Amino acid sequence: MRGTTVRDIWKAGGNAVSGWLQTPDILAAETIASLGFDAVCVDLQHGTIDMQAAVGLFQAISTSNATPLARPTACEPAQIMKLLDAGAFGIICPMVNTGEESERLVAACHYAPRGNRSFGPVRAAVYAGSEYMAKANDTIFSLAMIETRQALDNIDDIVSVKGLTGLYLGLSDLSISLGYPPAQDSSHGEILEAVQLVLRKCAEHKLIPGIACPSGEVARKRMQEGFRLVTAGPQMAWLTNAARQALAAARG
Amino acid sequence: MRGTTVRDIWKAGGNAVSGWLQTPDILAAETIASLGFDAVCVDLQHGTIDMQAAVGLFQAISTSNATPLARPTACEPAQIMKLLDAGAFGIICPMVNTGEESERLVAACHYAPRGNRSFGPVRAAVYAGSEYMAKANDTIFSLAMIETRQALDNIDDIVSVKGLTGLYLGLSDLSISLGYPPAQDSSHGEILEAVQLVLRKCAEHKLIPGIACPSGEVARKRMQEGFRLVTAGPQMAWLTNAARQALAAARG
Amino acid sequence: MRGTTVRDIWKAGGNAVSGWLQTPDILAAETIASLGFDAVCVDLQHGTIDMQAAVGLFQAISTSNATPLARPTACEPAQIMKLLDAGAFGIICPMVNTGEESERLVAACHYAPRGNRSFGPVRAAVYAGSEYMAKANDTIFSLAMIETRQALDNIDDIVSVKGLTGLYLGLSDLSISLGYPPAQDSSHGEILEAVQLVLRKCAEHKLIPGIACPSGEVARKRMQEGFRLVTAGPQMAWLTNAARQALAAARG
Amino acid sequence: MRGTTVRDIWKAGGNAVSGWLQTPDILAAETIASLGFDAVCVDLQHGTIDMQAAVGLFQAISTSNATPLARPTACEPAQIMKLLDAGAFGIICPMVNTGEESERLVAACHYAPRGNRSFGPVRAAVYAGSEYMAKANDTIFSLAMIETRQALDNIDDIVSVKGLTGLYLGLSDLSISLGYPPAQDSSHGEILEAVQLVLRKCAEHKLIPGIACPSGEVARKRMQEGFRLVTAGPQMAWLTNAARQALAAARG
Amino acid sequence: MRGTTVRDIWKAGGNAVSGWLQTPDILAAETIASLGFDAVCVDLQHGTIDMQAAVGLFQAISTSNATPLARPTACEPAQIMKLLDAGAFGIICPMVNTGEESERLVAACHYAPRGNRSFGPVRAAVYAGSEYMAKANDTIFSLAMIETRQALDNIDDIVSVKGLTGLYLGLSDLSISLGYPPAQDSSHGEILEAVQLVLRKCAEHKLIPGIACPSGEVARKRMQEGFRLVTAGPQMAWLTNAARQALAAARG
Amino acid sequence: MRGTTVRDIWKAGGNAVSGWLQTPDILAAETIASLGFDAVCVDLQHGTIDMQAAVGLFQAISTSNATPLARPTACEPAQIMKLLDAGAFGIICPMVNTGEESERLVAACHYAPRGNRSFGPVRAAVYAGSEYMAKANDTIFSLAMIETRQALDNIDDIVSVKGLTGLYLGLSDLSISLGYPPAQDSSHGEILEAVQLVLRKCAEHKLIPGIACPSGEVARKRMQEGFRLVTAGPQMAWLTNAARQALAAARG
User: Fold this and answer.
1) Nearest alpha-carbon partner for B87 in B3, B210, B143
2) Which residue, of A214, A249, D97, F141, has the greatest Cβ tally within 10 A?
3) Helices B51-61 & D26-34, crossing angle to 10 degrees?
4) Is the complex ipTM higher than 0.95?
């Protein structure tokens, strides 16, 4: 079955590096996917991307071996299920602050009996082939974003939900929530502790720890710390930095 | 009237640096425009961009002071006129190989008596305001791309067309046409001569010399040579290089 | 008023056959609508269709006499109201599992005093004409999908909501919920009982029983059983089967 | 920082007049914005506009000085946050019927500590510039729509939420809720009382009173009554009336 | 067969009034079509409309009895044929300046033996029904725009093309071509003579005279002069004037 | 290099079966491509598909091993080059009626020295990888459609163009051109002779003979006759027939 690159890497003990899409640009998506990322994530939360555009982006990603991921706008089951029908093989769910929200996420990612996902994988079954229904529950993965003080407080409830695949740290939002400016590579003590807490809880519960990173360099450092799914920076940061440098070089 | 940034720079004796859009991504367009480029060009020839998407890209550019430019798919008057109606203030026309094509370009960019542009600036007049009809003929500029051996042979006919604003060198295609691999910074003798020919013909006819560049560094060098409209690299090169570097950094 | 084909059929004691759209393809929609279906349903739940695309699909349907229907992604009042504003004349609401959800559906489909629909039928009034506001509450219909064990358990609460038009069986999801593989023509005893339960409850409460079918043949059988709104198979099944057969015939 | 036109008018004691978009037509949006409105609102609730189209509309508005506003489909935090990320500088939130909903609205419009807005202003920071993060909490404004009997009953709870910018009367829905036909210029006693109630509560709590109006004439009257943000009629009413008159004039 | 409203009016000796679309806004299109225009024209030349958007606009028009018309960007057979395949029942062709161009237009609008239209009415046959192939040659109509001095000079060649349905005056462009500012209601002697010339030539050759008008009032006057297809003003003029008036009324 | 499926089949002496897309539906495209067709053709001539939509369709096709093909609206070099840049690996060019048009087609499909294709494979190089520039001239194939009496008359000129890959019979248009009703499986003597002529000329010049077919059955027959690229029916015929049958089955 296609789409299992990230799962295969994890099974083999490795770490996965993801691209991160923020616009409905299907050529950008295909180009990024073609570079060799293990996964590419479609960000519906902060990106200017709707569900229907996501379908085209998933197709663009599916021309490569990268596993298609999605971040929904919120922990909304109907939205998550529609992303899965469209071919997302992993969900990075923002703002999972309670055990109840963790359960809602996991339920949306599994057909009964584990969950309550509705049946109709209109594109997913085209992409994955005829095995989809049989293997979906064991293949689709779900990562709960830890990005508020409330989530830190409720982390034991969150990780206790059976079927959750891992946690995904969002340090920008966590920084704001803890009273700091938004940053993905902060060295404030509370932030460093949160990082360790997430790694420790994942180790205890055999969960995958993931984290959003502003650049490839930070992504590398995070993998050395123990994170197993990292983002090597988002699309618009890549484009903006490169265009700004080109303009500066031209101006001299 | 808005849109005159490039014209104003040229009047003041300066050189203009342009961004170069290759996809219908309106957020990428607005972001690039916001960085301080003097112009941003919508490439309908090799980009995955149609006319209707170009309208959105022109709007994205119009949130900044950058002059909106367009490269049509070919020297087709109806297409050029529609781009002007949509708000392009400069046309970089590919494959102008003869004096007749140069005349066709210039005619399409001017209302009578100079040309045969059809009236209906449905967006251009919104963008530029009520002066548009009075000032369009003196504001819109047209650059004929020199990118084949045939164009070099016919350069005197091409530059003799009254109302043409300048020439724009396309070294990738010119290289292929002359028997070399495509490259925008070639040092083959024939290519170097072509560069000098274009600069010389522009100087003789008081035309603006422009050139497509693969990067900001090359753009800077070209301005030092005398080019007055340069591209600091295209959108997908920026994105691809940055994403590739990020992935490499993550992998270590 | 346009859009009443299904209501008229029901009034005359007949049964209605619906087409079922799963993609934003407006030509496919118009073509299907032109074939003589009594209704055509836009599936936002499992189809790759967003709200804005639904508007174009409703227009495509509105070139015919078929009643435009929609299935929202979930029992979300704001989404249902927007579909009605866009011209849906019937809502097939997924996953109505409780009386509270049934009430939420019905309230969203009626202006006060019966419901809480917000006023602004920006396309619906264009399609239906000036009578829309006066007749909407009596014309728009709402069908609650019964597709989980929980819904079976709560069926009395669901059907007791005043203003609900009918029930709509989703046997694929119901099968999964009851522990069977997804199928729309299952003969498991529990499934057969569920079918009879829905028909009986509808008869008792003068509700319309409807059901999703995988093909025209099954649709015919379901009408013989007493169902009064049936789907004669979804768009992608039609296309996929036909294309697969054509390829097989070519290969011999 | 761009986008502060309406805030600046209010600070100077003036009233703001807004345009109102109901379709994804980016040329219509830019044209309306170019006419001198102080604000232009993108209506996702009753308009045929999705989130992704809203991005293009915000860009079209951003070619002018008009402040970009949005009405979400409902009081849904994730949707409101995404509109803010896309560049909305004011939210007109429909159906705020309780203090809890007012709090949810205000929280979505502010980063911590006041609210729980998630960080990722992917377009807003391009539009507004580098000051965005520092100034967003004091610049973005939120207006709670009062349009049901329930909202009138709970108005004290609604206005007590710290950080709310104002109230926005929706008389069509309020009329229906109170048992009258939908109208934005009703003279029923209950409606007139509701208007006075909203003005009085705003005065008491130093909130901005706003109101939807069917035409420029009504908008003028409402400003004379004390409303400080008014809509001079929606897009489709303008177009429909003008087209109808033109046809009548042609027919004689 | 649907789509014959304008043909039927002409047969009965009447005059047809057309709406005129300039943007891809399908709701605006359906709304305008619903008002009772005899025809609605999709303007690809000066409007921000591409071929694919035209398909949606034709569907929107096809919800009414208005005959769908199109103005291509130029006298390009492939484009004209694609518009016909998409369901245009009349072509208003810009810049027909010679007999050769008139012949090219007419040939594109007819299947052999009269013309060279390629077969594949993928949407037209859905809209019109099974009679389409048999009736298309006698139903589709073609109007050659007379809008340059060259066209006036060649008018005898233009009208001599067998199968041409009529002429369509474009006075804005004709004014520019003759040395005047663009205007659709000019009283310059040369313009008045051109109007009479077109009417006279149409009478002599039993052709339909049509004309673009800026408003309903002018359209009425033109019908009194003898024009049988008139435009009661374009979409953006309607919207802009109405929005401008509303803002002025609000400001007082 | 990806995209060579059809070339590989031909090299091995086999015949290729193609799907045929007529709408911008990317899910339909991916689904059809997934069924095992050797190629899938995007029809811009009679389909409701523009260039930009074609990019998404090429991506959808590129999730499979099917070779992406395109039929442009006409023998227009700029359009053909843009389709190649977007990732088409074969061009089926309509209405090639003369040797000059055949040469234009072949030139557009080759970089110099053989042709005049402009350099900028913005998506093609992503899809095909870094070998694209080196291999494009030998990989891209071009088929000239024979579909008029004029083409039959000029067939020797057409096939004599060096670099042309093959001929592609369009029997619907050829039938009309010869005075018969449009049909793809006609047994009129002139049609049968034309079929034999195409096969013979291809054999003589070592060209690939291809042909449009209305169904898989006819496609099979055509391969038995010697055709090496066949279409097993177009998308809308598949969908329409299947939907019509389903409705008939439901109605009984």
Assistant:
1) B3
2) D97
3) 30
4) yes
What percent of chain D is modeled with pLDDT above 90? 97
To the nearest whole Å, the CA of F17 is away from the closest chain C CA by 7
Contacts of E249 in chain D (CB under 8 A): 215-217, 219-220, 232
Contact of B233 with B215, CB cutoff 8 Å: yes
Q: Which of C196, C137, C136, C209 is nearest to C166 (CA)?
A: C209
Average pLDDT of the residues of chain D: 97
State which H helix or E strand residue D69 sits in.
Answer: strand D67-71
- Dihedral angle sign, alpha carbons of residues A42, A45, A46, A52: positive
- Identify the closest residue of chain E to D38 by CA–CA distance: E247
As given in the structure block, the two tokens for residue A100 are 């109840």
H runs (alpha helix) in A110-170: 124-128, 132-139, 149-153, 155-159
Side-chain half-sphere exposure of D205, counting CA atoms within 13 A:
21
Question: Whole-number mean pLDDT of chain C?
Answer: 97
Total residues found in chain C within this entry: 252
Instruction: Provide the residue type at B4 as one letter.
Output: T
Neighbouring residues of D127: CB distance < 8 A, sequence distance ≥ 6: B30, B34, B63, D2, D3, D58, D62, D87
Q: Verify whether the Cβ–Cβ distance E59 to C63 is below 8 Å.
A: yes
Beta pairing, strands C39-43 & C166-169: unpaired
Q: Which residues contact F20 (CB under 8 A, 6 or more apart)?
A: F40, F41, F43, F212, F231, F232, F233, F234, F235
What is the tens place of the pLDDT at every residue in D197-216? Answer: 999 999 999 999 999 999 99
* F143 secondary structure, DSSP code: E
CB E149 within 8 A of CB B116: no
Give helix B26-34 / helix D51-61 axis angle, nearest 10°.
Answer: 30
Q: Architecture of domain C5-251 in CATH? A: Alpha-Beta Barrel (3.20)
The rounded distance, in Å, linking the Cα atoms of C7 and E52 is: 34
Instruction: Give strand ranges (E) for F159-199.
Output: 166-169
Q: Where are the domains of chain C?
A: 5-251
Hey, what's the torsion of the CAs at E186, E192, E195, E201, to 10 degrees? -170
Among A103, A100, A106, which residue's Cα sits nearest to residue A142?
A: A106
Whether the predicted pLDDT of E2 surpasses 90: yes
Mean pLDDT (chain B, rounded): 97
DSSP state of E161: S
Q: What angle do CA F146, F150, F152 make, to 5 degrees?
A: 50
pLDDT above 90 for D155: yes
Contact status, residue A231 vs residue A16, Cβ threshold 8 Å: no
Preferred mutation among B176, B178, B231 to probe F, highest tally of F CBs within 10 A: B176
**Token pair belonging to C45:** 């739940």
- pLDDT-above-90 percentage for chain A: 97
The average pLDDT across E101-128 equals: 98
Is E110 tagged catalytic?
no
Residue C85 forms contact with D (CB below 8 Å):
yes
| Residue of A216, A239, A250 with shortest CB distance to B230 | A250
| Burial per residue of F10-23, b for 16 or more beta-carbon CB atoms within 10 angstroms, e otherwise | beeeebbbbbbbbb
CB of C73 less than 8 A from some CB of A: yes
Question: How far, in Å, CA of F136 to CA of F128, rounded?
Answer: 9
Closest-CA residue to C161 (of C102, C87, C90): C102
Q: Which residues in chain C have Cβ-Cβ distances shorter than 8 Å to F24?
A: 25
Closest chain A CA to residue B53: A25
Q: Nearest chain C residue to E25 by CA: give it.
A: C56
Q: What is the pLDDT of residues A108-160, one digit of tens each?
A: 999 999 999 999 999 999 999 999 999 999 999 999 999 999 999 999 999 99
- pLDDT, tens digit, for every residue of E72-106? 999 999 999 999 999 999 999 999 999 999 999 99
